[in-house]
Amino acid sequence: MNEAQHSARASQRMSTAGRAAWLRRTVLGGMLVIAGVSAPAFAAESSTAEAIAQYREMLADGNPAELVEMRGEELWKTPRGPNNVSMAQCDLGLGAGVVKNAYAQLPRYFADTKRVLDAESRIVECMVHLQGFKRADVIKQPFSKQGQDPTDLEALTAYVAGQSRGAIIHVSQVHKEEKDAYARGQKIFYYRSGPYDFSCASCHGADDKRIRLQDLPNLTKPAAARQAFATWPGYRVSQGALRTMQWRMNDCFRQQRMPVLNYGSQASIDLITFLGVMANGGKMDAPGLKR
Questions:
Q1: Is 148 a domain residue?
Q2: Residues 6+ apart with CB under 8 A from 75
Q3: Residue of 54, 82, 182, 223 with fewest CB within 10 Å of its CB?
């Protein structure tokens, strides 16, 4: 048995947290190898982007998000909550119990709530109305901290997203509420505010922008929007945690020094609707792998 096979066997025996830690160390080692081999090339931006792409490709077969998906599937199918029922009858927009390809068609309007919901907000609704959990308890800590095990919401979102892998993104604009959500999301995307007069478009509204070694996609262009939307939720290697689209919206607001977004707020759903519509026609590949 060669060294790679020994490592693979060892990783299979690790717990979710242990394997994630092992993968983080492997990632850092890989980055150092790439940096060492390609040091002169880092002088050129194109070479830097290629090196980062190489590092991501190297890890594509070892995405810790798969472990989070497995946990999410277990949570989805296990009777829980005051009502002791599973999420098997949760309607994600394609009918009660249908999970396959549902994430690729969210956000969308739901008649029972009379509003547009993204995947995470819809999961919360099902946990509250099907399983009997209190909403305040469900959303009290939606995001795990660096290095922690995933929260239930993160795991459930990873599972639902994974069931749309390969599906074509089709965020509806049929219902009036869906059109209104898109319009509001577009307005928020370009709205400048806060102490630095930033907007989402400040970072994501033009080509060839970068922060440190991270390219910033121009989300006003369909190709870039498709690539971005299709890979969230994603496992953030630098944080050792799976991050969801709600987290991504929250963190973008934080970096703009804007007030913190409430989990599942109308503003967050509207922004995700805008991005989803811009990404229509792309192919889902989530959970993805992030730096």
A1: yes
A2: 87, 152, 155, 156, 159
A3: 82
pLDDT at 49: 57
- 252 classed as catalytic: yes
Task: Tally Cβ neighbours within 10 Å of residue 82.
Answer: 9
Work out how many domains the chain is built from and give that number. 1
Question: What CATH number does residue 250 fall under?
Answer: 1.10.760.10
Q: Which of 14, 49, 216, 252 is catalytic?
A: 252
pLDDT at residue 22 greater than cutoff 90: no
Sheet holding 234-236, edge to edge: 241-243, 234-236, 288-290
pLDDT tens by residue, 205-253: 888 887 766 788 999 999 999 999 999 999 998 888 999 999 999 999 9
Residue stretches of the annotated binding site: 90, 126, 200, 203-204, 248, 252
Residue at 163 is within a domain: yes
Q: Which residues are annotated as a binding site for heme c?
A: 90, 126, 200, 203-204, 252
Which residues make Cβ contacts (< 8 Å) with residue 62, sequence separation at least 6? 11, 23, 26
Side chain identity at 113, as an amino acid letter? T
- Could you tell me if residue 225 is inside a domain? yes
Decide if 42 is inside a domain.
Answer: no
Question: What predicted TM-score, i.e. pTM, was given to this entire model?
Answer: 0.81
DSSP state of 114: T
